[in-house]
Specification:
The chain is mostly helical. It has a single domain, classed as c-terminal domain of poly(a) binding protein (Orthogonal Bundle), CATH 1.10.1900. Helices cover 75% and strands 0% of the residues. It is built from 5 helices and no strands. The model has no long low-confidence stretch (mean pLDDT 95).
């Protein structure tokens, strides 16, 4: 019995990968084997960097809170320690936003913890 190949499904898979490779440079956009490798690597990078983005934003928030706290004579670690002991339920994202965009509100938080 001859081997049957599902040409419809394999063509659909290839079209899906080549569609994902649209916009790549050179052979990466239209040669199947090169495009497949490029798309696989791109997917790995995107998976990894969705996690790294969270790290980067946390570091940015810490930097902003530190800058805001130092304007009021405290370091970041002192400020965050006092925030937790005073049971202030504001996370770093909100505190960083206050420090950047609403300095009066951040000053009120600093006065509350001092």
């Amino acid at each position: 019995m001859p081997r049957s190949v599902n040409a419809v499904a394999s063509r659909a898979r290839k079209k899906k990968v080549l569609k994902q490779a649209k916009g790549y440079f050179g052979r990466r956009k239209n040669v199947w084997t090169v495009a497949k490798n490029a798309v696989d690597k791109a997917m790995l990078y995107s998976y990894r960097d969705r996690r790294n983005k969270k790290r980067s934003f946390r570091a940015l928030w810490i930097t902003r809170i530190n800058a805001g706290a130092r304007l009021h004579g405290m370091s970041y670690s002192q400020f965050m320690g006092k925030v937790s002991t005073n049971n202030i339920a504001l996370n770093r994202k909100v505190l960083a936003d206050l420090a950047m965009n609403h300095p009066d509100a951040f000053k009120a938080v600093v006065k509350k913890v001092k």
